[in-house]
Structures are given as C-alpha cells and as structure tokens.
Amino acid sequence: MTPFWISAFLDVPATDHARAADFWSAVTGMSPSEPRGDRGEFTTLVPEEGDGFLRMQRVGDGLARLHLDLHVEEPRAAADAAIARGAQELAELPGYVVLTSPGGLPFCFVGHPAGRRPPARTWTSGQSSLVDQVCLDIAPAAYDEELAFWAATTGFPLDAHQRHPEFRLLEGPDDQPLQLLVQRLDDGDGPTTAHFDLGTSDGGRSAEVARHEALGATVLREHEHWTVLNDPAGMTYCITDHPVR
Fold it and tell me: 10 Å Cβ neighbour count for 102?
C-alpha cells in the first residue's frame, strides 16, 4: 500500500522542545500550529502554501530523534502487511498504528489527508531551500533487510546514487513532500535512525549553512556535496547540494 503522503516528526524532550521549535520554524519559514493532543504535545509546522509535512512531538526524556508518518487509506491493513515483512507493532490508537521497522526505526501508518506539496523558500541571501528528504541511517548488518523493507513498504522506485555507492534513493512522486535516501553506515550495529536533508538552489549551500549557524545550529563536518550540522536539541541533519525538487 503505497503512501499518498509522507510526513516526519521531530520527537524532542521537553527540556529542548521550545528552542527546537523556534529553530525549525525559523529554518523552514513555517509557523507552529496551536498545540494539540491530550498534553499539548503535538505541533505542526504550517507552510504559507501547501500542506504541512513537518511536525513536532514533545516527549518526556531521551535524545531527540526523527520518526516517519506514512499516510495511507487503510492504516490497519498497511500495518499488517508491514508486520509480515518484519516490522514490530508497538500500539494501535484511533486513526493510526505505531510500529518499528526491522532495524528499529519508529514509524506510523496514519490516515490523515494531505496532498499539496509546499514550494521551497527563497531567503534574503538569494538561495532557496526546503526540507525535502529523510535519510535512513542503517548499520551494515541490517542494511539488506532494511532496504528491502522500505522499498516494499513505500512502493517507491529504488535508484542507485551516482557518486556514492553507500546511498540508495527511494524516490516518491513529485507531489510527495519527502523522498527517502537510504544510507549504509560504515560500521556499528545500533538501530536504524533517520535525519533531515535540506535541498538548496545551485551554489546556495554556503549561504544556507551560514543562515542556520546564525539561528543556532553547529557545523559538525563538511563534505564535498553536503554539510553535517546539529540543531539546538542535538539532532543531526544535513544541508546538501541536491537541487530543491
């Protein structure tokens, strides 16, 4: 059951939630919605145009992390199919099912409607940017099973990366807000994790990195085609040279 929309949640401990929300609102140019949920724990970053696909959840403790919501017509049926592929169910609540992938990445099947992908935002320095990709970071031993799981679960075409063999791309339709990049890590045996990638306009990465630093991000590493940063809650993400879709 191919998802008709993919959104991503930043799960941030209560101690860091306010500053992380301020940071990601400024980085994306999207405004936080009114809190919702029994404890006011859920917030959507609302774009000026199109439908929201970035959300935040205030959690009790632990490290900040990212999880995916796959929007489908029938969450229960999609969850059953994913379980048959090796997923583990954690909970079923009204309207959604919470699972982990075979490699341990949390995700949900949800039935919420959406369908208008927001455009990139152009900044005062002239560059455009958009969070338009989630990278799944997978330990070597889990890589083959996890890659097969996400390819089957999304139904997206699987393409090799032209320059870096450790990456495979699950490229959704143009109207999807997020495509999925699958990365085979060099070592380690921990659970699968995920991070955001921002696409930028041609030649705009250095200006975009400077903008993020001014908003509170910390640069960790520079690569030929991407820069690795930490947000104020300690979550790793990348600004890349891949053009904004």
Answer: 17
